[in-house]
Amino acid sequence: MVASILGHYLMSKEVITVKEFKAILKEQEKSRVKLGLIAVAEGFMSVKEADRVNRLQAIMDKRFGDIAIENNLLTEGQVATLLRKQGNPYLSFAQALENLNIMTLQQLEQWVVSYQNENHLSPSDMEALKSDDVDNILHIFLPSEGQQYSELAGVAIRAMLRLVDRDIYIGKSSLIETCVMDNSAMQTVEGKNGYQLILAGRVEGLLPTARLFGKEEFAVVDMDALDAIGELLNVINGLYVSSQKDSGSYEMCPPEFCDTSHKISGKEILRIPIYVGQSAAMLGIGVDCKVEVIK
Predict the structure, then answer these.
(1) Closest to 220 (Cα-Cα) out of 231, 233, 210, 230
(2) Using an 8 Å Cβ cutoff, are 284 and 271 in contact?
(3) pLDDT in tens, the chain (295 residues)
(4) Measured between alpha carbons, how far is 258 from 273 in angstroms, rounded to an integer?
């Protein structure tokens, strides 16, 4: 995520172009090796064991290394070794910039300082951003009053990174009571701490997410595209609910869809801007939310 956050900042400053940014991401792909592949190459795991962990990761909100440790397939020391070999995401971004002769590490660091100052971030915030850890990054972008939603938000973003696009990134979040959208999917999860999980967009903001997750070339955000978004919500909520100690007390309701201009209102909604490529959407976590069509 750090590459996308800083890359889009550099594009906003017209330091790099969209074409150059795509080339940077492609260059990073050359060194972005999956942990399982490194584990097999190092002789720590068999191909069959790595495949098993990959399958478990598809249904669990946990990192490859954590699942491998829990299943006695890797030790903590081996995971630490693999992570070092996998490389630091921020340095990988910097290396790609240098490989393409776009800018040096020193020049990048100057822009990082500008980003830090413009967004009023502390040195520890910047270290959290460079770590590329979703939970650490969420802490930076969530308002202090919205930190109680961080666990669910983390599950949602990690799932989207795995199932939609590994280069998605988020923006500064806020707590709101209402918002107007052109299309949305919302799923209610009932229980003691019930909530609504929402993915909404303006115009075609949800289209890339629907296409990538649904693996289908939707032309517009219609009910078919929203059905794919609803399935994504179902996966996210399933991961979150199953991770709770009292998971049996939750009930997931069928997703609700709206493909016309409408207002979403609730007692409290955490609004997280989420970007897939050049398209912006809203990931929302709400309490007592309802949808009202605007005529």
Answers:
(1) 210
(2) yes
(3) 999 999 999 999 999 999 999 999 888 877 666 788 788 878 899 999 999 998 888 778 888 999 999 999 999 999 988 887 777 788 788 888 988 999 998 899 999 999 999 999 999 999 999 888 899 999 999 998 888 999 999 999 999 999 999 889 999 999 999 999 999 999 999 988 899 999 999 999 999 999 999 999 999 999 999 999 999 999 999 999 998 888 888 999 999 999 999 999 999 999 999 999 889 999 999 999 999 988 5
(4) 19
